[in-house]
Amino acid sequence: MLKFTRLLYFVSDHLPCKIIRGDKEHPYLERYYLCSVLGRRFYLHRFLGGDVDEALHNHPWRKSCSWLLTGGYQEFISRRNGPNDYSQLEIESRNLSSGSINRIDSDCLHRIVQAKPETWTVFWHTIPRIQPWGFVVDEEDGTTRFEEYANGRGPDWYKRAPRGKHCAERLAFQ
Fold first, then answer.
1. CB under 8 Å to 112, separation ≥6 — which residues?
2. Quick one: which of 51, 59, 50 has its CA closest to 109?
3. Which helix (H) or strand (E) holds 102?
4. pLDDT at 135
5. Taking the C-alpha atoms of 139, 140, 143 and 146 in order, what is their torsion angle to the nearest 10 degrees?
6. Is the pTM of this model over 0.90?
């Protein structure tokens, strides 16, 4: 497995890199752009930890999928009852390990709770976005609401991103 992890680092050194951060500015994911083909966009992900935001989040695409290459993670997952229905969510916990496939469609809400060291995945999603990306926020009165997440980098971030081996943020966390 060590040889395969080294191969992933070698490949990611040459790919456009973006560090994903939570609301507290802690990095939790390295994203490397692989390609876009047949209406899908592919990435290599390296988890630095679990999602730092405690709320469940959606993905803005009709379909997305993650194939765990190494490591594994625990996730909380739920499905909405309707397009804008965030009430009465039944949340389950599941553990995914190397070789697992994780399908995350537009009605799915999830949160990576804990990732094992050196968890790498191939992640793909359909193009284009069909809904805003955001988080389910619990209100003080017990209700829930959806809070849109504003990401200013845009869908073509990889065209101007540094390669992995030149990504200063990445080097600080290895």
1. 28, 47, 50, 51, 73, 74, 75
2. 59
3. strand 101-103
4. 85
5. 0
6. no
Give yes or no for residue 36 having a pLDDT over 80: yes
Polymer length in residues for the chain: 174
Element (H, E) at 46: strand 40-47
DSSP state of 141: T
**What is the spatial distance between Cα 78 and Cα 135, in angstroms, rounded to a whole number?**
13
**Gap between the Cα atoms of 158 and 167, Å rounded:** 12
Pairing of strands 17-21, 27-37: antiparallel
Q: What's the token pair of residue 119?
A: 């968890």
Instruction: Locate 35 and state its tokens.
Output: 């390609």
Q: What's the Cα-to-Cα distance from 91 to each of 55, 56, 152, rounded to whole Å? A: 12, 9, 30
Q: Are 53 and 22 in contact (CB under 8 A)?
A: yes
Cβ neighbours of 87 (radius 10 Å): 13
CA distance 45 to 31: 5
pLDDT in tens, 76-124: 998 887 767 767 788 899 999 999 999 999 999 999 989 999 999 999 9
